[in-house]
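Before the break, one more example. Copy the sequence into your notebook; we will annotate it together after we see the structure.
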Amino acid sequence: MSLESFIAALDAFSREAAAAFASAENEESLEAARVKYLGARSGQLKDLQKGLGQIAPADRPAAGKRFNELKVGIEEALRQATARLKQGSAAGPRAQHFDPTIPGTRRRIGCLHPLTQTIAELKDIMGRLGFTAADGPEVEDERHNFEALNIPPEHPARDALDNFYLAAAETTAGAASPGAKARLLRSQTSTVQIRVMEQTTPPIRIISCGRVYRPDTADATHYPMFHQIEGLLIDRHVTMADLKSVLRLFARSFFADDVHIRFRPSFFPFTEPSVEVDMSWRDGWIEMGGAGMVDPNVLQAVGYDPEEYSGFAFGLGIERVCARRHGVTDIREFFKNDVRFLRQFG
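Here is what the structure looks like once it is written out:
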């Protein structure tokens, strides 16, 4: 078979098949036309494809190209015919009985994550108390995460098993650079306080909200990554009474007027004296975080005179605050991405 006759047969087939698809009045007639022209076993296109073997080898590339173009065109004609029939079917009886007074289907929209909502509300509450939000990096050096916070090298809090240390800076050869400083994912948002104090003169009144990382085993009240709100106030004549007053105002603004605050003696390297902060609301006491007066060593580390300035700091777990307010008994629910759970907070 010559190339010219093969192309002529293809053109005739294309016109006939396209006309049959375009004239189909229902799905049954369209399906019959599809089987006739494009059927896998007995379709006419299958027979035309067999004719490629009868073309001279030198002309086969041109014949094959023309055959593929025809196949794509016919399949597109079938697709258009199918869409035409479906559109006509959908616009038929239903269009005649459409009632515009019936309410439409309500679209389901997303909402902010409950932790994001909580962070925004905490910033708003503390903003009304005069605190400004500050941010800092999540990858920190040992000075900001430990040394400036009065945590000595031998302190257990610096143990490699209690922190997410990152690999030291490497050269192109893969060896550790001489003098490379260890870096880690911050274990507390107190690092932001150090950075702010290094660049600001008192008085200071800030909060920082963000992610912190500790290799804790995940359970109902712990998670390897969680969020903290950290508060810092530095000025003259600041006392523990100021600390408790701020925390009481914060708790009553976020929870209710019947919430109670209590302090239990504790120890943190960066505060002296140090306390654990408990809150009681509805059904008993729960530990919310730590607080205390900023240790004089921390003030000296950032260039403040502890004889002139004093201050307090507190850190609360945002997951615990959020869970307490909404009655969630397991903070792991906040990280499962279960839409059924998250939808409650929309």
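The mean pLDDT is 87. The first helix runs from residue 3 to 23. Try to locate both features in your own notes.
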